[in-house]
Specification:
The complex is a heterodimer of chains A (342) and B (323). With 342 residues, chain A is an alpha/beta fold. Chain A has 11 helices and 8 strands. Chain A has one domain: Rossmann fold (3-Layer(aba) Sandwich). In chain A, 41% of the residues lie in helices and 11% in strands. Chain B folds into 2 domains: 182 residues, Thiamin diphosphate (ThDP)-binding fold, Pyr/PP domains (Rossmann fold, 3-Layer(aba) Sandwich), CATH 3.40.50; 127 residues, Rossmann fold (3-Layer(aba) Sandwich), CATH 3.40.50.920. The termini of chain B are far apart.
């Protein structure tokens, strides 16, 4: 049973699934990612966020759609813009927020920060902040899955900018020749940091157009359509589980805000931003659900629930104390210490 | 006890650990055909293609693949053919492998080994295939660093590295591959972080690593002929560093000469000298002395390499200055 189905069951144990439209779980998860990002932005304005932050308002359909296609035991791995990916796999929002604020009880104990949110217990093997570096790591996760022969897959999320770094090409080549169960999902938000990807890349689709060079199909999807992402990832994962090898999926989206919290993104044309805002995935999915007969009141209730959850998380995280200073000396080695000499 | 070459000790360790633990898998360039230094011949035949994986020339994919496999429950052993090539994948080694356990608050553990040839050894490989990269690794918290000097230690330290729960870089000095030595029969493991006293003496301590251990022993022979008894320490690993063994020896001899093949402008010998100066100042009767490689890219011609590399003669001269 996929996690999606598990989540769409009635939360009331023992009660049969309700008849009619499924509970809007994808909608709820996208909202959670969005509201967490907005709360982070607000806390940053108040000086509560320690260090940089790279939010993903506008990208939510990719994180949530892909996660909905994965099973327990599947791995995912992402970039410094990784909060939504951790949350989409089920990471505890409060532990994430505590990490962003540098408080005790952060999901990485305060040692990772915004760019390294990780939740291994949920299959999210980390957020990596050197562009492209985690693609080879995804190959290794997929290699282990292939060696174990358990039918699990790895989904590796990366930005359009990563397609121009050597590690992308080394990783895709290795995955293709070793037929690894790895799905490389490019979140093409049209910008590598401040520069338009089209200005520094000789092909229209930075990931998909490179796929044929490695014997892979060029796949481009609407990354703001959460169900399209879910269905594409599910289909490609299903092939990979049966030994069909890797795939590159380029999901086209739009980053609604700047590269980082500190970037006002003034370099983007106003019409482009307007189009991006109009096509953002959450409002769009709400219209889809309403078109299918889901009551607006039900969706409003989801919105209220998520808003209340995030407000509570933000408040508790803000009130939490900083981590114990002595914990800076733990976790280097597997024995828990940082001792390097006698 | 069996006599093995250093290169065969590599294979012997891999066989021992692959036999013992089916999670141990190999990857690297030409590892299936046996490797350019002939350290992995016969392993495909014995363990099959599912345990020994040939890679493209893609060091980032090799090292990153090892990291991901370790996260996925395997115990990979990656080969980087020449340690100079760490420069092509240092991001994965220094930024990802070394830091991920810490950055994730201990959620990820990385039991992996990256091994391969290191150093010069008078083989004429030139500046891009002869570097001593062990000090690069020692700069980065989160990496263990092993540099064996004998076939027995080559087998035992590599076995320990494979059994270790943390990432270990094993540097195999290419000048030692043909050397021969006794290797204990049966399961052989040498713990990481324990220096060996390879010759006892009371008047000066000579500390070496990998290839320079031999130079220290040769120097000690020469000094003995002149009536000077030198103690020789083989550090074996840089991380963990057995500083206590060095401090203990210096407490006895009151003098320390350190021999490092890498360029002397910086390096592990400088770190060790600083520790001894800081923690054993009152034991010292002479300044700590370093005998290091020259601060030049390693030249190819034999006489030029000899000119800049540490040698028994230079170690003897350094001892002469501190007696």
């Amino acid at each position: 049973m996929s996690s999606e189905h598990a989540l769409e069951r009635s939360p009331r144990a023992g009660v049969a699934a309700p008849v009619g439209p499924p509970a809007p779980e994808l909608y709820r998860r996208m909202l959670l990612a969005r509201r967490m990002a907005e709360a982070t932005r607000e806390l940053w304005r108040e000086g509560e966020v320690h260090g940089p932050g790279h939010l993903s308002e506008g990208h939510e359909a990719i994180a949530v759609g892909a996660a909905a296609a994965l099973r327990a035991g599947d791995a995912s791995i992402g970039t410094y813009r990784g909060h939504a990916h951790a949350l989409a796999r089920g990471a505890d929002p409060e532990a994430v927020m505590r990490e962003l604020l540098g408080r005790e009880g952060g999901i990485c104990g305060g040692k990772g920060g915004s760019m390294h949110i990780t939740s291994v217990e949920h299959g999210y093997f980390g957020s990596y902040a050197i562009v492209g570096a985690h693609l080879p790591i995804a190959c290794g996760l997929g290699w282990a899955q292939r060696l174990r022969g358990d039918g699990a897959v790895t989904v590796c999320f990366f930005g359009d900018g990563a397609t121009n770094i050597g590690a992308f090409h080394e990783a895709v080549n290795l995955a293709a020749v070793w037929r690894l169960p790895v799905l490389f999902v490019c979140e093409n938000n049209l910008y590598m940091e401040y520069t338009a990807i089209g200005a520094v890349t000789p092909v229209e689709h930075p990931a998909a157009d490179r796929a044929p060079a490695y014997g892979l199909e060029p796949i481009v999807i609407d990354g703001n359509d959460v169900e399209a992402v879910r269905d594409t990832v599910a289909e490609r994962a299903s092939r990979a589980r049966e030994g069909g090898g890797p795939a590159i999926v380029e999901a086209v989206t739009y980053r609604l805000r700047g590269h980082s919290l500190a970037d006002p993104a003034a370099y983007r044309p106003a019409e482009e931003v307007e189009r991006g805002v109009a096509g953002e995935p959450i409002g769009r999915y709400r219209r889809v659900l309403e078109g299918r007969g889901v009551e607006g009141g039900e969706l409003d209730a989801v919105e209220a629930d998520v808003a209340a959850l995030v407000a509570a998380v933000a408040e508790r995280a803000r009130a939490a104390p900083p981590p114990e200073p002595a914990t800076a000396w733990t976790d280097v080695w597997a024995d828990g210490t940082s001792r390097w000499r006698s | 006890m069996a006599e093995l070459t250093f290169r065969d000790a590599v294979r012997s360790a891999l066989e021992q650990e692959m036999e013992r633990d089916e999670r141990v898998v190999l990857l690297g360039e030409d590892v299936g055909p046996g490797g350019v230094f002939k350290t992995t011949p016969g392993l495909v035949g014995r363990f099959g293609r599912e345990r020994v994986w040939d890679t493209p020339i893609s060091e980032q994919a090799i090292v990153g693949g090892a990291m991901g496999a370790a996260m996925g429950g395997m115990r990979p052993v990656a080969e980087i053919m020449f340690s100079d090539f760490y420069a092509t994948c240092w991001d994965l080694v220094a930024n990802e492998i070394a830091k991920t356990r810490y950055m994730t608050g201990g959620q990820v553990t990385l039991p992996l080994v990256v091994r391969g040839s290191n150093g010069g050894g008078g083989l004429g490989f030139g500046a891009q295939h002869s570097q001593s990269a062990e000090s690069w690794a020692m700069c980065v918290p989160g990496l263990k660093v092993a540099c064996p000097s004998t076939p027995a230690d080559m087998k035992g330290l590599l076995a320990a590295a494979i059994r270790d729960e943390d990432p270990v870089l094993v540097f195999e000095h290419k000048g030692l591959y043909p050397s021969v030595g006794e290797v204990p029969d049966g399961d052989h493991v040498v713990p990481l972080g324990r220096a060996a006293v390879v010759r006892e003496g009371a008047e000066v301590t000579l500390a070496g690593l990998a290839f320079t251990v031999g130079a220290c022993l040769e120097a000690a022979e020469s000094l003995a002929a002149d009536g000077v008894e030198a103690e020789v320490l083989d550090l074996r690993t840089l991380v963990p560093l057995d500083a206590a063994a060095v401090l203990e020896s210096v407490a006895k001899t009151n003098r320390l000469v350190i021999a490092e093949e890498g360029p002397g402008q910086l390096g592990w010998s400088a770190a060790l000298a600083a520790i001894v100066a800081d923690e054993a100042f009152d034991d010292l009767d002479a300044p700590v002395t370093r005998v290091c490689g020259g601060a030049v890219p390693l030249p190819a011609a034999g006489v030029l390499e000899d000119e800049v590399n540490p040698s028994a003669r230079r170690i003897v001269e350094a001892v002469g200055r501190c007696l």
